Amino acid sequence: MCKKFVYGVAVSDYNFIGREVETKRLMNNFRGGINTILMSPRRLGKTSLVMRVCEKLKSEAIITIYLDIFGCKSEYDFYNRLASEILKQTASKQSMWLEEAKEFLYRLTPKISFSPEPNSDFAISLGITPKTHTPEEVLEMAEKIAIKKGKQIVVCIDEFQQIGEMTDSKHVQARLRSVWQHQKHVSYCLFGSKHHLMSSIFLHRSMPFYQFGDLIVLDKIPSAEWVEYIVSHFADGKRTISSALAEEICSFTDNYSAYVQQLSWLVYTQKEEGETVDESDIKQATDDLLATNEVLFMQMVEPLSEYQLNFLRALCSGVTKDFGLAKIREKYQLGSYSNINRLQKALLERDLIEKRGTELAITDPVFAKWFQRKMMF
Ligand SMILES: Nc1ncnc2c1ncn2[C@@H]1O[C@H](COP(=O)(O)OP(=O)(O)OP(=O)(O)O)[C@@H](O)[C@H]1O
Ligand SMILES: [Mg+2]
After folding, report:
1. Ligand 1 lined by 274 (C-beta under 6 Å)
2. By percentage, how much of the chain surpasses pLDDT 90?
3. Where are the transmembrane segments (predicted)?
4. Residues with beta carbon < 5 A to ion ligand 2?
5. DSSP codes joined into one string, 106-168
6. Which residues lie below 8 Å from residue 96, measured CB to CB, with a gap of 6+?
7. CA of 218 to the centre of ligand 2 (A)
8. Looking at ligand 1, which residue's alpha carbon is closest to its atom 25?
9. 163 or 118: whose pLDDT is higher?
10. From the CB of 41, is ligand 1 less than 6 Å away?
11. Beta carbons within 10 angstroms of residue 62's beta carbon
12. What is the predicted pLDDT for the residue at 122?
């Protein structure tokens, strides 16, 4: 059975819409061996898009490798993950990948660790440490494999912002770039969220990954495409929603992909087969959306100082710039003039706010709605 609406995990096929232009651009880059950097706020659809492109290229003479490095806390965590995913996903026989691995990476001492949870996968760590392997040995491996197999390889690294959190991050980045930029048979698609981390890696002139490749900032999916998706998926489930009410789902969630799907699902579950959605269902579902996300939102505000909360309050009241003006600082109790930069920086680093041209805005539109209801006095 196809789920009508899916949120929180990467989507494909029936649940995937749009992204035609981006798909084409990525496919061209992957085919042409051009490195790509893909950025967007959280939950807009990076992983889904890259996975779709990998899927589409399956039949071609390109090997695409996908890995998520969210759990990698150190440089060598990353090398272990990178090496094992490259080896696994390029092995000619899946069951033999560890055997084949020894051809490309010497001195391996794989360790199998079983997860404490029953039924879940066991993990293999290749046992790569600074004592056994240099970073270059690991980083050069993909190129060797590509040459040996006579194929082009694209390595897609999800949650790449994690590299920016590592100790000595700039040196790690320099090591990666210095090897990767010379590879002729391997290209990279590096993507992630957390704007301040991603931009500190890719958009700063002094940083190793500056101008590493084609930079794509993923946009929201336009309302027209969402409306068509929502209306038709309701119809598939024998429920009816008007385009105008589907449009309301888009505007409440500001077209944020995961929220559009989540809110659509909440509306969908209000109705039985044969019924039609009305305005009160939308109202109920938006309340539910705020309620189900409340725990997360509470976690987001919990560490904030009173000044930082006041800054968000000012934003929610419609102030988007000139926070340093005396009358704004006084009205919203933002402290001294010199405090403003600090507040702004702290909130940007937490990804709670973002710059839109010369103005500031709250990043997550549903969080903004919740904040407005619960945190304004
Ligand atoms: N092309 C799409 N069509 C329909 N829904 C989508 C699409 N892309 C994303 N979504 C919705 O957004 C959700 C998150 O997608 P995805 O995990 O790909 O985003 P992401 O940008 O990688 O998120 P994160 O920043 O958390 O890594 C999906 O579960 C789905 O609900
Ligand atoms: Mg993702």
Report:
1. no
2. 83
3. none
4. 46-47
5. SS---EEEE-SSTTSPEEEE----TTT--HHHHHHHHHHHHHHHT-EEEEEEETGGGGGGSTT
6. none
7. 12
8. 42
9. 163
10. no
11. 18
12. 55
